[in-house]
Amino acid sequence: MYNGEWHDMEVRSDEIFIKGESEPRVIQLYRTVHGPIIAQIDTDNDGQVDIAYSKKTSCYDSYISAVPAYTELMLAQLQKNFSNLESCLNQI
Q1: Which of 5, 16, 56, 65 could form a disulfide with 35 if both were Cys (CB 3.0 to 4.6 A apart)?
Q2: Measured between alpha carbons, how far is 78 from 24 in angstroms, rounded to an integer?
Q3: Rounded CA gap, 11 and 52, in Å?
Q4: What is the 3-state secondary structure (H, E, C) of the chain?
Q5: In which band, very low, low, confident or very high, does the pLDDT at 23 lie, cut at 50, 70 and 90?
Q6: 35 CB contacts (<8 Å, ≥6 apart)?
Q7: Please, which residues have CB within 8 angstroms of residue 44's CB and are 6 or more apart in sequence?
Q8: Which of 61, 46, 59, 47 is nearest to 91 (CA)?
Q9: What is the pLDDT of residues 29-85, one digit of tens each?
């Protein structure tokens, strides 16, 4: 629900390659007005998703410009590993 109204999720298909598999898998990616869906839960085990959690992102319209920041965040293990922590965090 957003501004008192229900909105449909955006859905797009994408192919991902899995190591050891010869064919790519097709996955569905969902997004709401609040951000991308990061978890889906079937609360009553009927095979239907009852709850979906989304993650608000400040860079939705400019994901490409945030790729270097996300890459640095994923690769760093300690704060001292960041080459430019403040700049990195400001892009996300």
Answers
A1: 56
A2: 34
A3: 13
A4: CECCECCCCEEEEEEECCCCCCCCEEEEEEEECCEEEEEEECCCCCCCCCEEEECCCCCHHHHHHHHHHHHHHHHCCCHHHCCCHHHHHHCC
A5: very high
A6: 54, 55, 56, 57, 60
A7: 50
A8: 59
A9: 888 888 888 888 888 989 888 888 887 776 666 666 677 777 777 777 666 665 555
